[in-house]
């Protein structure tokens, strides 16, 4: 313990920088945890669909959506979500499960919808994890 105090006395600039970085990391983690939607496994998503009438929002492009999507999913590509989110207003009381290809784009959509008062969740791993779990897909 004395070594740490001695180091801090001799290297005050480094010690202050370390404390500043630790404080910033703590703040960023707090913000991240507050803004992030819950990540769901395919099994948990299925439970929410069946028992809580969750809405599935597929944010992949329309072309990819038609090659295979979750039953009763609503398609609004991420690029159009900012202007078309009002289509979901009648579902504000329902939880919304956001689905993308791999789970990497869904947090952006979740943040956008959360700002407008929606309860959002993310399918962890996206449609890829859904397929890996041998869950059913609809093809158009």
Q: Would you write up a description of this structure?
A:
- With 140 residues, the protein is α/β, with parallel strands linked by helices.
- The chain is elongated, with a radius of gyration of 21 Å.
- Helix content is 53%, strand content 14%.
- It folds into 2 domains: 32 residues; 97 residues, Oxidized Rhodanese, domain 1.
- α6 links the parallel β4 and β5.
- Strands 1-5-4-2-3 form a 5-stranded parallel sheet.
- The mean pLDDT is 92.
Radius of gyration: 21 Å
Return the CATH architecture of the largest domain: 3-Layer(aba) Sandwich
- Tell me the name of the CATH homologous superfamily of the largest domain: Rhodanese-like domain
H-E order: HHEHEHEHEHEH
- Could you tell me the number of beta strands? 5
Q: Mind summarizing the main beta sheet? A: 5 strands, parallel
Shape: elongated
Q: Tell me the β content.
A: 5-15%
Instruction: Enumerate the spans where pLDDT stays under 50 for 5 or more consecutive residues.
Output: none
How much helical structure, as a percent, in the residues? 40-55%
Q: Give the spatial strand order of the biggest sheet.
A: 1-5-4-2-3
Count of helix runs:
7
> And the CATH topology of the largest domain?
Oxidized Rhodanese, domain 1
Mean pLDDT: 92
Q: What is the number of domains?
A: 2
Distance between the terminal alpha carbons, to the nearest Å?
67 Å
What structural class should be given to the helix and strand makeup? Answer: alpha/beta
CATH class identity of the largest domain? Alpha Beta
